[in-house]
Amino acid sequence: MTISSKIAELLERGEVAVLVTVARGENVGAKLLVEEAARTTGTLGSAELDSLVAAQALRFLQGRDDTRLVSLKDFATDFPSAGEVFLLFERLQPPPRLVVCGAGHVGASLAKLGALLGYQTTLVDDRAEFLKDERFAGDAIELVVASDWTSAVREVVGNGRGMSVAVVTRGHSEDEQCMRAVVQAKPDYMGLIGSKRRTSIVIDRLREAGADEEQLRRIRAPIGLDIGAVSPEEVALAIMAEIVAERRGASGGSLSAWRRATDKHKVHG
After folding, report:
1. Is the N end or the C end of the chain the one with fewer CB atoms within 10 Å?
2. Are 14 and 97 in contact (CB under 8 A)?
3. Pairwise CA distance, residues 195 & 211, whole Å
4. pLDDT digit string (tens) for 55-108?
């Protein structure tokens, strides 16, 4: 099987892999595909080099980078001419997915923003009138009418891989039904809208029903970053900012905080 066909197969299955290409040195352009399960396709020129690079590729997968140019000497100093070989590591994975539970004002705004940012977005609600195509014309959003919240969410979330789930429904009961399925799927990100009291009630009910405590601690509730959001569009922005920060491994803090701290020190120094 060729590397290109193998990549297509992996992405179709929703799996993650690393494509390593020789960017400088002997065999420029040679490629090695390393799957998350450590299986490989292709070669960089020798079995020894392939083995060394495959191990490094698995370490690369544990980080958040999409690409990285690496000198072979950085992790294989004893390999002949290691300082002359540079390798490009590229993360291969399906586009990120966003599932929004609840098609009210916040949910609709969030789904539209997610689609705009390149997320494969699915919007779920049990009210068909909230999911009319004309309401989302041109937004490339999958609309799912739920006859049963838990079953519908379980189906669209699947195994949770590469998935962010935002539960922004209209009430406690709907929240709980959605979160029951979400917690079991263990998505990359899961958040629940509402006040501290409302979200605590839902989480306590999930706990009483036997939900995994570690997964309950991962729930972002109340959902989103604190930007003082008021309008549905602002709330959607706060939620999406937190989702992106989680995906990229960022803190979600202010980029200029260091400057203000430095300036304050200068003034008082």
Report:
1. C
2. no
3. 21
4. 999 999 988 888 999 999 999 988 988 889 999 999 998 889 999 999 999 999
DSSP 92-145: E-PPPEEEEE--SHHHHHHHHHHHHTT-EEEEEES-GGGG-GGGGTTS-EEEEE
* CB within 8 Å of 135: residues ≥ 6 apart: 108
Statement: the pTM of the whole predicted model exceeds 0.85: no
207 — alpha (psi -120 to 50), left (phi > 0) or beta? Answer: alpha
Q: Residue 265 domain-assigned? A: no
**Which of helix, strand or coil describes residue 230?**
coil
133: amino acid identity, one letter:
D
Nearest alpha-carbon partner for 137 in 115, 163, 119: 115
Contacts of 57 (CB under 8 A, 6+ apart): 18, 20, 32, 34, 89
Instruction: Please indicate, yes or no, if residue 70 is contained in any of the structural domains.
Output: yes
Task: Output DSSP code: residue 95.
Answer: P
Q: Does 62 fall in a domain?
A: yes
Give domain status of residue 257, yes or no: no
Q: What is the 3-state secondary structure (H, E, C) of 174-191?
A: HHHHHHHHHHHHCCCEEE
